[in-house]
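$ ./design --mode recover --in tokens.txt
reading tokens...
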């Protein structure tokens, strides 16, 4: 009798630990590190209000530049001078993945993610898709297909997340 109770307790504690580990999976590990030059705390988020959502739309609509070192910047100098543009800079240049292996790691983590995405992870995934679109437009030949495939897989993961939750 006592052995059965112990086995049940062991089973439930194992299930709890497994669920906690899966729930605490970090999709964007770079978000846990800060850049010394930024005044922001760990895990920055761009969109906290409707005004910031509108600003993000303006930033994206005005266009972004992608230099040879893969640094993303806002084309419009007036918009780039806004204080909130620094948050976008940190998100785009320090947090989102920029290489195909990093993007594949993100996609595989999204496919196995058991809970709805947080607004931070959703925002970063969308910004990653924006980066991928810029890269796909920029690279020549067959590399374009690799970037396009990465974009499609992230899109499907986001669509699945939106449908399920």
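writing sequence...
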């Amino acid at each position: 009798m006592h052995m059965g109770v112990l086995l049940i307790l062991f089973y439930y504690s194992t299930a709890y630990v497994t669920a906690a580990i899966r729930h605490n999976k970090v999709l964007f590990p770079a978000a846990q590190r800060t850049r010394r030059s930024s005044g922001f705390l760990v895990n920055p988020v761009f969109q906290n209000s409707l005004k910031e959502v509108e600003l993000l739309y303006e930033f994206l609509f005005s266009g972004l530049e992608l230099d040879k070192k893969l640094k993303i910047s806002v084309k419009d100098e007036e918009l780039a001078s806004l204080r909130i543009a620094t948050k976008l800079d940190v998100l785009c240049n320090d947090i989102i993945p920029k290489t195909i292996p990093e993007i594949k790691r993100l996609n595989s983590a999204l496919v196995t993610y058991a809970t709805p995405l947080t607004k931070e992870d959703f925002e970063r995934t969308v910004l990653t898709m924006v980066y991928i679109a810029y890269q796909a437009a920029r690279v020549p030949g067959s590399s374009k297909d690799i970037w396009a495939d990465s974009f499609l897989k992230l899109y499907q993961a986001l669509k699945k997340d939106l449908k399920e939750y």
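exit 0
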